[in-house]
Design brief:
single chain, 10 helices
């Protein structure tokens, strides 16, 4: 039986609270905005700009629950972590991050080049050298290093991976590999959930997965009708 649409009900602007009165609203300000503006030219591949902003929001939420992690390390690191993909031949990116990929060198290159770019940007904005070194160490290994160096690194890793389970992340991964929504969710969960490092990250991941799995939207098969093998992939 088709749903009966509700009539619209325009609200008066006076009923919408100001931004500074709304809890949990995240904005880029100050030096983080400077870092973002300088990082943006490196983030025009793989939809990395949107990915990085979503991961920033997730990192901000994780910081509230991981007291040992430092915002002045985590937030610049998450804005800068994928800048290195700009230095990679676009034709090599998806084959390198696809499930079953045998091209770890390309993934590694985006980390090492990203660390160089991050160091240059942080130096340009006058970031403290000791904090800059901590950030570049995180960027240089955020995908290929399975263990976390410290609480900062754990939050960056979890925020980066949790993006995959957001609506934007699932749409993006599905479009990369021609998968339908159900296939995408199963693939992403298989390479994400067990690799989350913080308790809060796993709770957020479970919540996002539950919402995605219960979404009554269409589950049309992709062009191949099946998902690729999930073993060994990065998916971003």
């Amino acid at each position: 039986m088709p749903h009966t649409p509700l009539p619209v009900l325009p609200l008066a602007p006076s009923l919408i609270p100001p931004a500074d009165e709304v809890p949990a609203l995240v904005r880029l300000t100050g030096v983080e905005r400077e870092i973002w503006d300088r990082a943006l030219p490196y983030l025009d591949v793989r939809d990395n700009a949107t990915h990085s902003l979503h991961a920033y929001g997730l990192a901000d939420a994780l910081l509230a629950a991981v007291p040992l992690a430092r915002a002045d390390v985590v937030l610049p690191a998450i804005l800068l972590h994928d800048t290195g993909w700009k230095t990679v031949d676009p034709a090599r990116i998806l084959p390198a991050i696809a499930p079953g990929s045998h091209d770890p060198g390309t993934v590694r290159r985006h980390e090492t080049e990203g660390a160089v770019i991050a160091h240059r940007i942080l130096t340009d904005v006058g970031y403290p050298p000791d904090v800059t070194a901590r950030i570049t160490e995180i960027v240089d290994g955020h995908d290929t290093r399975r263990h976390a160096l410290n609480a900062d690194d754990a939050v960056v890793k979890d925020a980066d991976k949790l993006w995959r389970l957001t609506p934007h992340g699932l749409r993006t991964v599905g479009s990369w590999f021609c998968l339908d929504a159900e296939q995408t969710l199963r693939l992403v969960l298989s390479v994400t959930y067990d690799r989350l490092l913080t308790g809060t990250g796993r709770a957020i991941g479970r919540a996002l997965a539950a919402c995605a799995g219960l979404d009554p939207g269409p589950r049309r098969p992709g062009p191949t009708g099946r998902a690729p093998s999930a073993g060994g992939g990065h998916t971003g």
